[in-house]
Every structure is written in C-alpha cells, then in structure tokens.
Design a protein that fits this description.
0% strand; 79 residues; mainly alpha; 434 Repressor (Amino-terminal Domain)
C-alpha cells in the first residue's frame, strides 16, 4: 500500500494528523501509525478517509493516480 499518499493528501490540504484523527474519531498517535505504515488501516477508516478527502480508496492506497471519486453505486444511492 502506498502509505506516502496519506501524508501527501493531508499536507496538500494543510491539515495536521490530529485534524484527520479527530475526523476518524481516533487518537493522533493511532493515525500517525497508519500514516507511517506501522499499523494496517482498517477498511472502515479507509472508507471514511475517502469520504473525508472526496476521493477513492484506490487513490488513497496508490492503486490509481486519479483522485476523482467513483460515481455513487446504485446500492449507495438507496441508503
């Protein structure tokens, strides 16, 4: 996983680790460990980060360089 992208996207938005940690409802230290690759990021946090940054999980993990989020799925629209 491209954990470097997490730091880049956060810094591009002039956010501190604590800002992102608060958005996820976790401590800054825990988020820091995700960002440096010391801890694996649970899928629910990846989902929340994608929503927070208005991007896709694929972009966050480095699978694509396209930062635009995917269109909403039919299932997501029904919620």
């Amino acid at each position: 996983m491209n954990i470097q992208r997490l730091k880049e996207i956060r810094e591009d938005r002039d956010l501190k680790q604590n800002d992102v940690a608060k958005a996820l409802g976790i401590k800054q230290q825990q988020y820091s460990e995700y960002e440096i690759g010391k801890r694996l990021i649970p899928i629910n946090y990846l989902y929340e980060l994608a929503l927070f940054y208005n991007t896709s999980i694929d972009y966050l993990i480095g699978k694509t360089d396209v930062s635009k989020p995917y269109p909403k799925s039919i299932l997501e629209k029904k919620r």
